[in-house]
């Protein structure tokens, strides 16, 4: 498991492009038959990816967690990004199709991922001090909101999976936003969360397209050029928004003080620098 240490906001302006990418961009999440994990010390979030490719891939606990099983002291959300897959939790199998999310509560002992060559699972995990039941949330069944307008190139559908009023969790909040054809902007006007870290995982872009993701303090932003199926870690002090060269989807997931979807510190567009 790769380790990413915390970054103080005063350090951020001095980082060059490669340093920014090393600290905040997670590039290679999927390899056939492998589990790949990155631990951020910002709220101790774990970001991961699994590409079963016909294998049964167990969620073994990395040595850095000092745990007998991955979910001894953690909760987990597994998002089916593509293909058809199966997640087995303590012997119970859950079949997922694209944009389905399986929440796995603290205390689960054995978690295994399987699926065809197209199946890919994106993972987000946070420490948990309370246990909640493992729950499968289907794309068609979760709370859905339609926002934006074509004039601002931000027509989008927001699906909320793990949050207050949805799948119960200890600290995790997770959803998926999908932009309509012709729309490219996400999360604008933007915001920060002084109480939690957020991670964006971009997918559905296609190989030749990119998202220009803005990060940093609102008055001193920098950008990261993000490809399909890559993730960006956003500390509590950082904005997280961007525009793509085509439409796309992204998983937004966070952990911190609460599980309220609307806990945001809004930033007006004219305040950005």
Instruction: Count up the helices.
Output: 1
Please state the CA-atom Rg, rounded to the nearest Å.
17 Å
**On the 0-100 scale, what is the average pLDDT?**
96
The largest sheet is: 7 strands, mixed
Distance from first to last alpha carbon: 35 Å
Derived structural class = mainly beta
What is the string of SSEs from the N terminus onward? EHEEEEEEEEEEEEEEEEEEEEEEE
Give the DSSP E fraction (strand runs of 2 or more residues): over 45%
How many beta strands in the DSSP annotation?
24
* Multimer state: single chain
Q: How many separate structural domains?
A: 1
Tell me the name of the CATH class. Mainly Beta
By CATH, the superfamily comes out as Jelly Rolls
The CATH topology comes to: Jelly Rolls
Helix content: under 10%
Shape: globular
Numbering strands along the chain, what is their spatial order in the largest sheet?
Answer: 1-3-4-11-6-9-12
Ranges with pLDDT <50 over ≥5 residues?
Answer: none
Instruction: State the CATH architecture.
Output: Sandwich
Give the SSE layout.
Elements: E1 2-4, H1 17-24, E2 25-26, E3 34-40, E4 45-51, E5 57-58, E6 74-82, E7 85-89, E8 92-96, E9 101-104, E10 111-115, E11 120-127, E12 135-137, E13 143-147, E14 156-162, E15 172-179, E16 185-186, E17 191-192, E18 196-203, E19 211-216, E20 222-226, E21 230-234, E22 239-244, E23 249-256, E24 265-266
Parallel strand pairs: 1-3
Antiparallel strand pairs: 2-21, 3-4, 4-11, 5-10, 6-9, 6-11, 7-8, 7-10, 9-12, 13-14, 14-15, 15-23, 16-22, 17-24, 18-21, 18-23, 19-20, 19-22
């Amino acid at each position: 498991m790769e380790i990413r240490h915390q970054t103080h906001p005063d350090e951020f302006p001095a980082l060059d492009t490669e340093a920014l990418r090393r600290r905040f961009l997670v590039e290679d999440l999927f390899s056939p038959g492998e589990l790949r994990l990155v631990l951020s010390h910002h709220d101790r979030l774990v970001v991961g990816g699994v590409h079963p490719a016909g294998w049964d891939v167990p969620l073994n606990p990395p040595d850095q967690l000092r745990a007998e099983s991955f979910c001894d002291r953690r909760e987990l959300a597994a998002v089916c990004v593509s293909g058809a897959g199966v997640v087995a939790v303590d012997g119970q199998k859950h079949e997922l199709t694209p944009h389905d999310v399986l929440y796995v509560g603290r205390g689960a002992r054995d978690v295994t991922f399987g699926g065809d060559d197209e199946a890919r699972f994106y993972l987000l995990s946070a420490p948990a001090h309370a246990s909640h039941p493992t729950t499968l949330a289907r794309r068609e069944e979760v709370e859905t909101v339609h926002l934006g307008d074509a004039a601002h190139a931000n027509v989008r559908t927001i699906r909320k999976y793990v949050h207050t009023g949805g799948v119960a969790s200890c600290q995790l909040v997770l959803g998926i936003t999908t932009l309509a054809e012709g729309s490219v902007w996400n999360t604008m006007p933007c915001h920060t969360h002084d109480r939690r870290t957020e991670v964006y995982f971009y997918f559905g872009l296609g190989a030749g397209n990119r998202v220009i993701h803005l990060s940093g303090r609102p008055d001193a932003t920098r950008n990261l050029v993000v490809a399909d199926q890559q993730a960006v870690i956003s500390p509590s002090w950082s904005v997280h928004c961007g525009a793509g060269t085509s439409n796309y989807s992204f998983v937004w997931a966070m952990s911190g003080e609460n599980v309220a979807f609307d806990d945001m510190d809004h930033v007006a567009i004219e305040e950005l620098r």
